[in-house]
Specification:
Keywords: Glycosyltransferase, Phosphoprotein, Transferase. Its EC number is 2.4.1.15. By secondary structure, the protein is α/β, with parallel strands linked by helices. It is built from 28 helices and 32 strands. The strands form 6 sheets. Strands 5-4-1-6-7-8-11-10-9 form a 9-stranded mixed β-sheet, sandwiched between helices.
Length: about 850
């Protein structure tokens, strides 16, 4: 059922709402009691407080993945039967969530269910397994999974660019529309069962990357985690994706985003920085991205395996029999094992070439070493899979023909499906496991191998081993797989270097028994303590931490389509109403107005040679009101500001962040801070010049009181790195000088100590107080970190204000700030100031009176 609250998202990407098949009634909420609870009200779907009330007190986790952890079988009489898929990670992670947490699964079934049977099957799965199936029409599913997921996302995330039609194909927007449509269907399924105030939602993998946007739009405070099980490519690869921004923004609608390795997380953070301009911070060990007032946490933890399942299979009689069979089959020979899916990224052919090289360079290994390659069926389909199969078969045939003899095949290729216990048996008898994937998100084969090599007493007896002897194992692992950083005892290889892989195989064969035991013990200790339950438990703990401030923050949604995001800010932070401030303005008689220029009344980064005409006229009108004292407070130099605002004779100007001050046109400039000399510039400027020469795109801005190194147009990562180095360098060489070295947005600035915009606010308020003019109206507008000093002064200056004073500290844009108000952009600020100016002009026509500003000037 397509809810009305999402129609605009689908309209955006597809030009109209897609057809999902016939409409079906909503499933009842999954609860601990039977019966249908009240349905969600779609009419309220866009409100900030649209989270439906919950009648369920038990903690719940809704796990959403492409496939349900179920196996389906249709009997001869046409009846469907279902059972848990014990191999599914989504099922295994349940062990780490605790018995007190109810788990609901949402996903597709592997088998296609006829439309007439879908209602009955859905009800059965809900009641029996607490699973909610998403039934996707076959043609839509094909475009979604085999199209966008497998032709675009999967190759790109594994560093394959669509340079030709044979390499994934060109971007097809119809496939993207199908991807969004399927994600929308999954979102509807989540809405059928969610209790948004209580439930946690955990979304898995690249198939559902835009799902967080749909859920966040419907429930602004949904507790939402996402884990990516594939690699995340570098920004140079990812930026080629036409829908790159949409996917990044969708992921950022999660509260917690998980990755297997730091490399994957680093690439994601780099993409957010380069494409969205976001920065991240590490606080007490946690990495967080600030995104419209929300902190999106980043989790780095590789998934583990279900050790209990492996151990139960190791205990099976069938496993023991298979181990005995393989022991006899490979008696007197050393078994090397590879277990891989038959796809282009698993590096099977590279492994085979390395085996060929090993036998060529070491003739003594012929007849003694066997490579068993288990090739699991490919998950995708297409020409590339067929090419891998043909190449693998041809290479195996060539090696066996060259080096084989009667009773000996150097390579045993198993490309037919194996029972799980059969694969376990191969792990048990293999002396070394080889993983030569050229790119893989995680790869749990080495983990399974380590646990199986630990074995048990029965298998030790079968193999003729002393049960008291320490176990041993060897791993040769590609440095391009996610598990590699966790396995510090493995021999890491570059799979593209055939000679290196062959040498690693040789090393694994000749290493001493004691070293094999030490490496195995190290790996076993890690794998056994970092299992899938540990991974799930850790993710849930971090998700709870990431969501703990949800109820304390005010949330509302902005943006359209897949650009939707939620603003989360302090409850006291609100948009400044023009009517409200104009009303206060009219009631008051002694007003102090402090205005930043860059970013507040002119777009930051704009290239201008003069002030905006509308701004100047508005300021002149405000200055003509005798009740007003108006100051422009800017980081620009005094010469520029003097030229720009020469026509505003009564306007106060503070230049270079408050170092220079001129109360009006008739008096000379003065300095707010006493600086004996600027000798420090002779030290700082050469240092900045050094970094400018080595950082393309950076510049030095020389002011009378300060030096600013700007890297706005440099490479973001390199510029940020250089800025940190420059900051440390300057702090070191200027340690004995009376200056402060600070970093800001794309800048590093050196200026005299004590210089900040806050001193201008203090000056203005104290001057008015000394003249007996306690301000009863204070307006302060700014847009960046330097303006926070002004906000802090006026918000804590009650002693300098009238007891009935109204204070308006206003920032630009919805972001964390010491200000209590915000306006969206420079256009809204100018419109508000024009409203104040109009009020002054109306009052001047009705109540002409002596200028208070003139009185202040005359009394000096």
């Amino acid at each position: 059922m397509v809810s009305r609250s999402y129609s605009n998202l689908l309209d955006l990407v597809s030009g109209g709402s897609p057809t999902f098949g016939r409409e079906r009634k909503r499933l009842p909420r999954v609860a601990t009691v039977t019966g249908v609870l009240s349905e969600l009200d779609d009419e309220n779907s866009n409100s900030a407080g649209s989270d439906a009330p919950s009648s369920i007190s038990q903690d719940r986790m809704i796990i959403v993945g492409n496939q349900l952890p179920l196996r389906a079988h249709r009997s001869d009489n046409g009846q469907w039967s279902f059972s848990w898929d014990d191999d599914s990670l989504l099922l295994q992670l349940k062990d780490g969530l605790g018995e007190d947490i109810e788990v609901i699964y949402i996903g597709c079934l592997k088998e296609e269910i006829d439309l007439s049977e879908q209602d009955d099957v859905a009800q059965t799965l809900l009641e029996t397994y607490k699973c909610v199936p998403a039934f996707i029409p076959p043609d839509l599913f094909s475009k979604f999974y085999h199209g966008f997921c497998k032709q675009h996302l999967w190759p790109l995330f594994h560093y394959m660019l669509p340079l030709s039609p044979d390499l994934g194909g060109r971007f097809d927007r119809s496939l993207w529309q199908a991807y969004v449509s399927v994600n929308k269907i999954f979102a509807d399924k989540v809405m059928e069962v969610i209790s948004p105030d209580d439930d946690f939602v955990w979304v898995h993998d690249y198939h559902l990357m835009v799902l967080p946007t749909f859920l966040r739009k419907r429930f602004n405070r949904v507790k939402l985690g996402f884990f990516l099980h594939s690699p995340f490519p570098s920004s140079e690869i990812y930026r080629t994706l036409p829908v790159r921004d949409e996917l990044l923004r969708a992921l950022l609608n999660s509260d917690l985003i998980g990755f297997h390795t730091f490399d994957y997380a680093r690439h994601f953070l780099s993409c957010c920085g380069r494409m969205l301009g976001l920065s991240y911070q590490s606080k007490r060990g946690y990495i967080g991205l600030e995104y419209y007032g929300r902190t999106v946490s980043i989790k780095i933890l590789p998934v583990g395996i279900h050790i209990g399942q492996l151990q139960s299979v190791l205990d099976l009689p069938e496993t023991e029999s298979k181990v005995a069979e393989l022991r006899d089959q490979f008696r007197g020979r050393t078994v090397l094992l590879g277990v891989d899916d038959m796809d282009i990224f698993k590096g099977i052919s590279l492994k085979l070439l390395a085996m060929e090289q090993l036998l060529t360079q070491h003739p003594d290994k012929r007849g003694k070493v066997v490579l068993v390659q288990i090739a699991n069926p490919a998950r995708g389909r297409g020409k590339d899979v067929q090419e891998v199969q043909c190449e693998t078969t041809a290479t195996v045939s060539r090696i066996n023909e060259t080096f084989g003899r009667q009773g000996y095949k150097p390579v045993v290729l198993i490309d037919t499906p194996l029972q799980f216990y059969e694969r376990i048996a191969y792990y048990v008898i293999a002396e070394c496991c080889l993983v030569t994937a050229v790119r893989d998100g995680m790869n749990l084969i080495p983990y399974e191998y380590i646990i199986c090599r630990q074995g048990n007493d029965k298998l030790d007896v079968t193999l003729g081993l002393n049960t008291l002897t320490p176990k041993k194992s060897m791993l040769v692992v590609s440095e391009f797989v996610g598990c590699s950083p966790s396995l510090s005892g493995a021999i890491r290889v570059n799979p593209w270097n055939i000679d290196s892989v062959a040498e690693a195989m040789e090393s694994a064969l000749i290493v001493s028994e004691a070293e094999k035991q030490l490496r195995h013990e190290k790996h076993y200790r890690y794998v056994s303590t970092h299992d899938v339950a540990y991974w799930a438990r850790s993710f849930l703990q971090d998700l709870e931490r990431a969501c703990r401030d949800h109820l304390r923050r005010r949330c509302w949604g902005i943006g359209f389509g897949l650009g939707f995001r939620v603003i989360a800010l302090d409850p006291n932070f609100r948009k400044l109403s023009v009517d409200h401030i104009v009303s206060a303005y009219k009631r008051t008689k002694s007003r102090a107005i402090l205005l930043d220029y860059d970013g507040a009344m002119m777009l930051r980064g704009s290239i201008c040679i003069s002030a905006n005409t509308e701004v100047v006229e508005t300021l002149k009108s405000l200055c003509r009101d005798p009740k007003n004292v108006v100051f422009i407070v800017s980081g620009k130099d005094r010469k520029t500001l003097k030229e720009w605002f020469s026509s505003c004779e009564k306007l106060g100007i503070a230049a270079e962040h408050g170092y220079f001050l001129r109360p009006n046109h008739e008096v000379d400039w003065e300095t707010c801070v006493s600086v004996p000399d600027f000798d420090w510039k002779q030290i700082a400027e050469p240092v900045m010049q050094l970094y400018t020469e080595t950082t393309d795109g950076s510049t030095i801005e020389t002011k009378e009181s300060a030096l600013v190194w700007n890297y706005q147009f440099a490479d973001p990562d390199f510029g940020s790195c250089q800025a940190k180095e420059l900051l440390d360098h300057l702090e070191s060489v200027l340690a004995n000088d009376p200056v402060s070295v600070k970093s800001g947005q794309h800048i590093v600035e050196v200026k005299p100590q004590g210089v900040n915009k806050g001193i201008i606010a203090e000056y203005l308020l104290s001057t008015m107080r000394q003249k007996g003019m306690l301000p009863d109206f204070v307006l302060c507008i700014g847009d960046d970190r330097s303006d926070e000093d002004m906000f802090e002064v006026i918000m804590s200056a009650r002693a300098s204000l009238s007891p009935v004073a109204e204070v308006f500290a206003c920032t630009v844009g919805q972001k964390p700030s010491k200000a209590k108000y915000y306006l969206e952009d420079t256009t809204e600020i100018l419109r508000m100031l024009q409203g104040l100016a109009n009020a002054s002009e109306q009052a001047a026509r009705i109540f002409p009176q002596v200028s208070q500003l003139a009185v202040m000037s005359d009394s000096k």
